[in-house]
Each structure stands twice: as C-alpha cells, then as structure tokens.
Amino acid sequence: MARSILSRIALTTALAALGALAHPAWAALDIGDPVPKFTANAALGGKTFRYSLADALAKGPVVLYFFPAADSNDCSIEAHAFAEAVDQFAALGASVIGVSADDIDTLSKFSVKSCQSRFPVASDEAKTVINGFDALMQTRPDFANRLSYVISPDGKVAYYYQNLNPDKHVERMLNAVRALPKATAAK
C-alpha cells in the first residue's frame, strides 16, 4: 500500500513538472504593455550620470536592451553591434540604453571599451529595473536575460526580442523602430 501511494505521488509530481514545461512562464512585457519608468546610475564614455527613461522617451522612442554581464564575449559583441548602429537609430529618432546588474564602475569601463562611448549603459545591481521588465534570467537569477525592447514615446512596448544569442538584437530593433508610425518615431 505504501508503495502504491509513493508511486502515485511520483506520478503526480512528474505530471506537474511536464505541465509546467508545456506552459513556460513568459519572460517579457507584451506589446502594448506600459513600461515601468526608471532612473538609474549610468555611464557613457566612462563618465557617470543619472539616466531617466521618462526624459529619454520625451525625445522619441527608446531601444532598451538587457544583457547578462559586461565584458563577457557575447555581451561585448552585442554592445559593439549597438555602438555601430547608433547613428541609424538616431536617424530614426531613437536612442539606445543598455542595462545589466553590473556595478557602475564595471559599466563605466564597458561604456568606453565595448560601447565605444556611443550610448549609455545603466547599472541595476538591485535588479529592480530588470525585474520590472521581466528580464531576470530564470536559470541564473544573478543576471539579466538578453532581452531587447523598443519603447514608444507613450511609454508602451512596441516590440521585444529575447534570445541569448546576441546576433539578431540590433537588426530586429532597427526593423521595429523603422516600423513605428512616423509621428511616433520622429517625435
């Protein structure tokens, strides 16, 4: 009898686990969702300042991308790609900001080295911004996931893309900004 009860418990546990896999938690704010406004310590060209999402949105759309760790190979590749595309984003009226859980001193160096002093990166050591944007890496909760958003000037998600591979983030964000209504993109 005890064996039968243990078998049922094991079966129930296994079925629950399979059910959780069949319906994974969505790890991004959805298109049309309002985004949390934030201010954070940021670095641009090695100099620190207070970044305000509300102030940036007052000037046009914002490409907000989360990355796991400054100076890791893939994060450096992604930052370099965003740096190379900053002029294209600016021509469309958009700005770029990167966010990670790294401390501001690390990001200050990263802003020069990998971001080429072309766009700011913000520190979110407490992970309040990362959690607010559902960007926490589930398998490694000390890190942000690689997740990019296009935020329209009205403070809503226009597009998002999540993939640990850094290769397509810039291309997808540029296409999403290009697809914004002209009045929105050139505010």
In N-to-C order, the SSE pattern is: HEEHEHEHEHEEHH
Portion of residues in beta strands equals 15-25%
In this structure, how is the largest beta sheet organized?
A: 7 strands, mixed
Classify the secondary structure makeup into a structural class.
Answer: alpha/beta
Morphology: globular
Number of strands: 7
Spatial strand order of the main sheet: 2-1-5-4-3-6-7
Number of discrete helical segments: 7
Distance between the termini: 71 Å
Helix content: 40-55%
Provide a brief overview of the structure:
The chain is α/β, with parallel strands linked by helices and 187 residues long. The protein has helices at 2-22, 53-57, 73-91, 104-113, 128-132, 169-179, 182-185; strands at 39-44, 47-52, 62-66, 95-100, 121-123, 147-151, 157-162. Strand 3, helix 3 and strand 4 (95-100) form a beta-alpha-beta unit.
